[in-house]
Amino acid sequence: MNKHQNKKRSLWYEWFESILVALILAVFIRTFFLEPYKIPTTSMVPTLMPGDKILVSKIIYGPRIPFVGLRIPGFRKPKRGEVIVFIAPPEPNKCYVKRLIGLPGEKVSIRDGRIYINDKLITLPSISRNFYYNQGLYGQEGGEIKVPADSYFVLGDNSALSRDSRYWGFVPYRNVVGKALVIWWPLRRFKLIY
User: Fold this and answer.
1) Which helix (H) or strand (E) holds 6?
2) Where are the domains of the chain?
3) pLDDT by residue (tens digit) across 146-158?
4) Cα–Cα distance between 32 and 89 in angstroms, integer?
5) Per-residue pLDDT tens for 62-85?
């Protein structure tokens, strides 16, 4: 084998090694830190538009370990008003993006388009700027729903066109994937998600 062939083989090995390391690093980052998602529907308009591409932080709430069902502890639990990504209870092979409204143990009701938690009107701007319709089994006028332990009540910002907790109930904490951080594409819509 001559020097030229050795050099060629060495170059291919270096390329293969670099690509393999990059793939392993990308999978690691995507599994435990950040994952991109594309918004497919109008359920979160005007906050998120169909076609928006977002980055979701998994590390904040604690990333889930694939195939094991365990979760690495995060920095904190989800907070009211945050936009979260979760495995959809009605469609376990899909992820949904909604705004977190009700925390574990709270009583949620929708009255005149406004959100009440434990009979107190919520004035948090990310929630109060939206009008919420009384629809679905869990969103009826005059109804009050208690959020179970280790679960959340979520709604789409575009309440008229959102299939959310009003229809199918609660999101277990184990289903929470992460917190939506930023719209990164299209560039003209680049911004933090509130």
Assistant:
1) helix 3-32
2) 1-32, 35-192
3) 999 999 999 999 9
4) 22
5) 998 888 878 899 999 999 999 999
Cβ within 8 Å of residue 44, ≥6 positions away? 83, 97, 98, 99, 156, 157, 158, 162
For the record, the structure tokens of 14 come out as: 């270096």
The pLDDT of residue 180 is above 60:
yes
Name the pTM for this structure: 0.88
Mean pLDDT of the region 83-103 = 97
Which of 117, 103, 118 is CA-nearest to residue 148?
103
Tokens of 122: 């919520």
Residues whose CB is less than 8 angstroms from the CB of residue 64 and which lie 6 or more positions away in sequence, other chains included: 58, 70, 71, 72, 174, 177
Phi, psi angles (nearest 5°) of residue 160? -65, -30
The two structure tokens encoding residue 141: 């006028």
Asked whether residue 179 carries a pLDDT value surpassing 80, the answer given is yes
* Residue among 127, 174, 168 nearest 149 (CA): 174
| Topology adopted by domain 35-192 | Umud Fragment, subunit A (2.10.109)
Return d(Cα 191, Cα 19) in angstroms, integer: 31
Number of C-beta neighbours around residue 159 at 10 A? 19
Whether pLDDT at 1 is above 60: no
The candidate with the shortest Cα–Cα distance to 106, out of 114, 115, 97, is 115
Catalytic residues: 43, 98
